Amino acid sequence: MKKGFWGLPGTLMLLAAIFAAGHACTKNSDTLKPGSDEYREAENSYWHYCASCHGRDGKGHGMMASTAPIPPRDHTDPAVIGRRSDEELFKIIKDGGEAAGLDAAMPPHKTLLKDEEIRGVVKYLRNLCNCKYAAR
Ligand code: HEC
Q: Quick check: is 81 in a domain?
């Protein structure tokens, strides 16, 4: 292992991992409190980067939806979002559909959104579907 790996970023990652592990049994599925700053920030990200395809209401009928080769998913549908863990949703948003075995029409957002912003959007998706992760 390279010296210095466990610097401050490493320590923070370790703490985050321990924190996440404590919540792993529920696969997270946390929602945001409507009206809170966190909620407004995530909603903003969503309207900025997702609504063009998935629609402002998340139902998949954004302005660009018809240009995608397959329909953008309905984020209000528990059958769609409920079968994904927070980690899966995070990966789909960060690395795009293709990296997760879905269509490449779902673009990666790693250069557009910071990890913590993506985490907020994942929670916002739980608000939209009003659903938790249901194991397949
Ligand atoms: C350019 C259009 C476009 C944009 C912008 C876009 N998506 Fe998508 N998204 C799609 C399409 C098309 C699919 C369907 C891919 C498939 O099922 O193979 C999809 C699928 C998804 C899925 C997978 C749902 C499932 O089947 O489990 C998630 C989650 C998702 N999008 C979230 C987002 C979020 C969050 C954003 C904004 C940060 C976003 N998308 C932005 C087009 C888009």
A: yes
